[in-house]
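Following up on my earlier thread - several people asked me to post the actual chain instead of describing it. Fair enough. Here it is, all 232 residues.
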Amino acid sequence: MAKQRVFWLWILAAALPVLLIAFLAVRYPEALYGHEAKGQLIQGVVLLALLLGSAALHRRSPPGHILRNVGLWTAIAVTLFAAYSYRFELLAIKDRMVAELLPHAGVEVAPGAVSFRADASGHFVVEATVDGVNIRFLVDTGASDVVLSPADAERLGFDLKKLSYTRRFETANGIVVGAPVRLGSVAVGPIGIADVRATVNGAPMQNSLLGMSFLGRLSGYQVSRDTLVLRR
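Reply from S.P.:
Thanks for posting it. Predicted structure:
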């Protein structure tokens, strides 16, 4: 009698994956498009069947324990498949959370377009990769050049003592001098601009500035309330 009960438990465990395939095919048909997706599903379900069958054949486990494990593994399989089916929606949620927590990181909202949220002070801070070095810039459409703080310039390998500070700028704090330099590349997400004109500021700055020598070479940029969108 015990052997017969174990046999039927094994049959039930092996049949559940088949029922699971039928359920998922009806509930999430779009996730089964393509041979790769179907193959991954079949492999996962076969593995699940083996695990459930092995659990059912474990004679020392009481029937209630076996059924509980079968239900648990089935629930895990359904959850994983649902997560895979809605992976793009989940990625969008993840990008939204990143934009809120790390506004300088930006979110790619379309091919070649990156969106940034304003920080608590209402300014847009953009993290760019300059010649392989990550630098955070304050977006400033009033600056004709990309302006590097002395600290960021040193991070990029410039020797501040050997630069020629031939440029003079009038600012709210008075006249400041700057040294003209060229940046090999400035990349913001998928947007990359080569050979960018820049100036190393002669005085300390809290943030480097992302000015028009970069912004002016984009196809466009737009500010709407607390959102900035850069387009390649």
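The CA atoms of residues 17 and 48 lie 7 Å apart. That should answer part of your original question.
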